[in-house]
Amino acid sequence: MLISSTLLINQNLRKTFSLHTDMNKAELIEKINQLKKEKNAVIMGHFYQNDDIQDISDYIGDSLALAQLAAKTDADIIVLCGVHFMGESAKILSPDKKVLIPDMEAGCSLAESCPEDKFAAFIAANPGHTVISYVNTTAEIKALTDVVVTSTNAKQIVESFPKDEKIIFGPDRNLGNYINSVTGRDMKLWDGACHVHEQFSVEKIIKLKKEHPEAEILAHPECKKTVLTLADHIGSTASILKYATASDKKEFIVATESGILHEMEAKNPDKVFIPAPPEDSTCACNECEYMRLNTLEKLYACLRDESPEIIVEESLRKKAESSIVKMLDISEKLGL
Ligand code: 13P
Ligand code: SF4
What is the mean pLDDT of each run of 10 residues along the chain (336 residues)? Predict the structure, then answer.
């Protein structure tokens, strides 16, 4: 993973990161719960985490919910079971808390597709534009941004600006194209993408739909336009979950990281969820390998050692903060 220059890795990381793999799952769970209580820690997990992590998390949610929770929690320690930018957002919003992540290597291909110097040059080449960035970015990109969005609130936040507002949107071209199409805007798009969401196969989804004609197709807006065109519902992980739970249909083809199926199945035991297949059927490409780096063993070691810790240098934190706070304020006003 490309670690941002201003991110300081806890010096103790290498020294203390010995895993207790001799413990069985039940023992690990017990130890984690014990440490959590002793240290007044809260475990927040994203829907793309493996089942064990989702099950032990105090909260699971999409990236907006995790940011909202991180801004409000009264815990002393936040263990962010997700990827690095999510931990960084939590630290930016709650600088007095210790923010831990089970594996510091849990990055994001989309965030990496937007280097700070190149994005700054893109902004400089388009003067007079408001900069809107997807939350899947480094703190450095957030510091260059006017307002952050997630896939839950991107449409509403873009629409909160006047119709003729000149806007730069980064880094996801698929989400940007989708928001342009549903809002009638012409935002200038950064050319980034997520390697997981670009992998879904249009042909295989069409074939699946023929085999399951009653199934609804649900897709995350990070998917390619050709996949979104097939979808009955397009939305964030939380939105996909909500839609499937409310629907009277019984089968769903789900085009996003397959970790979301765990909560979809838990909430809807009478429904069938089929993960949309990637182009390459020999890989588990609909799993985000960064998200899946976090394990129960690493979560235990991270709580025990209070490491790896996410640290954001204060002047950068302050510059990045206002774009995330603006997003939270607008979302609150909109009831999101
Ligand atoms: P959500 O905003 O739906 O949580 O998505 C985050 C993400 O990383 C999608 O790939
Ligand atoms: Fe990043 Fe894609 Fe993984 Fe989401 S699924 S965290 S966008 S690499």
Answer: 35 40 90 98 98 98 95 97 98 97 98 98 98 98 98 97 98 98 98 97 97 98 98 98 98 98 98 95 88 98 98 98 97 92
Gap between the Cα atoms of 65 and 129, Å rounded: 28
Check residue 281 and give its pLDDT.
80
Nearest in space to 273 (alpha carbons), one of 242, 244, 251, 241: 251
Contact 250, 213 (CB under 8 A): no
- Is the distance from CB of 100 to CB of 298 less than 8 angstroms? no
Tell me what pLDDT residue 46 has: 98
- Amino acid 198: pLDDT: 96
DSSP conformation class of 291: G
pTM: 0.92
Residues 6+ apart with CB under 8 A from 248: none
**For atom 1 of ligand 2, which residue has the closest CA?**
108
CATH 3.40.1740.10 fits 2-106+290-312, yes or no: no
> What pLDDT score was predicted for residue 285?
82
CA of 9 to the centre of ligand 1 (A): 25
CATH of 110-194+315-334, one of 3.90.226.10, 3.40.50.10800, 1.10.287.990, 3.40.50.2000: 3.40.50.10800
Distance 274 CA to ligand 1 centre (A): 19
Ramachandran angles phi, psi of 312, nearest 5°: -120, 125
Integer angstrom CA distances of residue 74 from 41, 177, 262, 329:
9, 38, 28, 19
Which amino acid belongs to residue 214? E
63 lines ligand 1 (CB under 6 A): yes
Distances (CA, A) of 120 to 60, 107, 142, 143, 294: 34, 21, 11, 10, 32
Task: Tell me which DSSP letter residue 89 carries.
Answer: H
Instruction: Answer yes or no: is the C-beta of 134 below 6 A from any ligand 2 atom.
Output: no
Judged by its nearest atom, the ligand closest to the C-alpha of residue 46 is: 1
